[in-house]
Amino acid sequence: xxxxxxxxxxxxxxxxxxxxxxxxxxxxxxxxxxxxxxxxxxxxxxxxxxxxxxxxxxxxxxxxxxxxxxxxxxxxxxxxxxxxxxxxxx
Length: 90
What we know:
By secondary structure, the chain is α+β, with helices and mostly antiparallel strands.
C-alpha cells in the first residue's frame, strides 16, 4: 500500500475530502517523526510502538574488497507490533 492509497482509504472511511485526509495523514506522520527525533517512543494502541534504538559501533566488512572497516554507532527506528495487530495478521 502506498501513501496515496492510505489517503484515499482514510478519505473514504472517514467521509473526508482527499485534501483533508491528506493533511491528517501527513500531520500524523510528521508528529511521529518529531517524537522519534526527540527520543520519545510513540505508542498507538491496537497497532504498535515505534522506538528509537541505539546501535553500538562495530566492525564490518566492505563487500567489494573484503576489507574490515569500523561502522559508527547510530540510532535506528524499531517497531513493535501490538498483540491485536499480530493476531489480526495471523
